[in-house]
Design a protein that fits this description.
alpha/beta; Dihydrodipicolinate Reductase, domain 2; 2 domains; 7-stranded mixed sheet; 20% strand; globular
Length: 361
């Protein structure tokens, strides 16, 4: 297969190495707003393919890289004209929607990192476009491919836990991003907890009915200056009455911490409760967790990212439908939108207040 990749920043370069390691991929066609960055990533992949050592940014994801062709082109037009079988969009957020539309117009299956757009209105427009097109679009919510979350989903679906009454989930970053990122991030609920909202729907098969959210700042001033918070919390009620407690922070110095607990009538199950847990026990004589801890989302979800792009290759070959559609992305975005409204107005928000497909919830 020939796969195109737009954007070679941190996640784009990571995806390039993962794609180059897939047995299905014979050639990568790469573009970036900075041609020098695209050339650097292409050169790194060529070095890795020849077995050279010391390549910048080499990780476990690169150790299995095969010899694939890597070509740099000036822009998305040239990329789509090169006869790619699939297109991976990993640019900054403002580039997502235009490139998605371009791929759909060209009839090329496309994978897009979240969010598909920066606003609710444009996300709705893209969901409507996707619904009217036969071109598959796979949105990058990698937790759907994590073994722990998939096990939790199976436990809920099989009735193993009985009825589910409480869920706790969170996204806790070890350290904040650069100050320049925050004004365009969309806020902590759209940027961080949108993953929790998507995986909540994935694991439970339910929709969010009501939201009450809050936030606070104890860290750097640039969060408040951008109208954002560095720590957030939300109480969600699902459409079957299940209570979900969601948290997020940019300051979790103990390590990157992403978990979910699902509590039911007959049992409970936890995702991320292993020896990498970024927490210490206060109980005497307890040696759990023993480590090592993880320090970034890429390290925490490395196998999931690999599985996600392998799944996209199958989507591009026409072997399976998209495992995460634009409609799925829209529903997670709507919950994040409700949280931001709740935080701003300090009140509960019913999901019927948040616009959806066709102008309704």
């Amino acid at each position: 297969m020939r796969i195109g990749l737009a954007g070679v920043g941190r996640i784009g370069a990571f995806h390039a190495r993962t794609l180059a390691a897939l047995d299905d991929v014979d050639e990568l066609v790469v573009t970036d707003a900075d041609p020098r960055a695209a050339e650097r990533v292409a050169a790194e992949l060529r070095l890795l393919a020849t077995g050279a050592t010391g390549a910048t940014g080499a990780t476990e994801a690169t150790r299995e890289t095969r010899e694939v062709g890597v070509r740099v082109v000036p822009d998305a037009d040239a990329l789509l004209a090169s006869g790619v079988d699939g297109f991976v969009v990993a640019t900054a957020t403002p580039g997502h929607a235009p490139l998605l539309r371009q791929a759909v117009a060209a009839g090329v299956p496309v994978f897009c990192e979240k969010p598909v757009a920066a606003t609710l209105k444009e996300t709705i427009e893209l969901a409507e476009l996707a619904a009217s097109s036969a071109v598959p679009i796979h949105v990058g919510f990698q937790r759907r491919f994590d073994a722990g979350y998939r096990r939790a989903r199976a436990a809920v679906a099989s009735g193993e836990l009985g009825f589910v009454h409480t869920i706790r989930a969170g996204t806790h970053d070890q350290a904040p991003p650069h100050a320049s990122y925050i004004p365009t991030s969309g806020g902590i609920f759209r940027d961080c907890n949108v993953h929790d909202f998507d995986i909540l729907r994935f694991v439970t098969g339910r929709e969010v009915a009501t939201v009450y959210a809050t936030g606070a700042n104890k860290g750097a001033a640039f969060f408040a200056e951008a109208g954002d918070v560095d720590t957030g919390g939300a109480l969600l009620t699902l459409d079957d009455g299940t209570i979900a407690l969601i948290s997020s922070t940019r300051y979790h110095g103990a390590g990157h911490d992403v978990r979910m607990e699902v509590h039911g009538e007959k049992g409970a199950i936890a995702v991320g409760l292993d020896h990498s847990l970024a927490m210490s026990s206060a109980e005497e004589g307890v040696d759990f967790p023993r480590g090592p801890r993880t320090w970034s989302f890429m390290e925490r979800f490395l196998p999931a990212y690999r599985a996600e792009l392998a799944a996209f290759a199958a989507v591009a070959r026409g072997e399976r439908p998209s495992p995460c559609t634009v409609r799925d992305a829209l529903e997670a975005f709507r919950v994040a939108e409700a949280c931001e409204l709740s935080r701003a107005e300090r009140r509960p928000v019913d999901m019927s207040e948040i616009e959806g497909i066709g102008g309704g919830a």
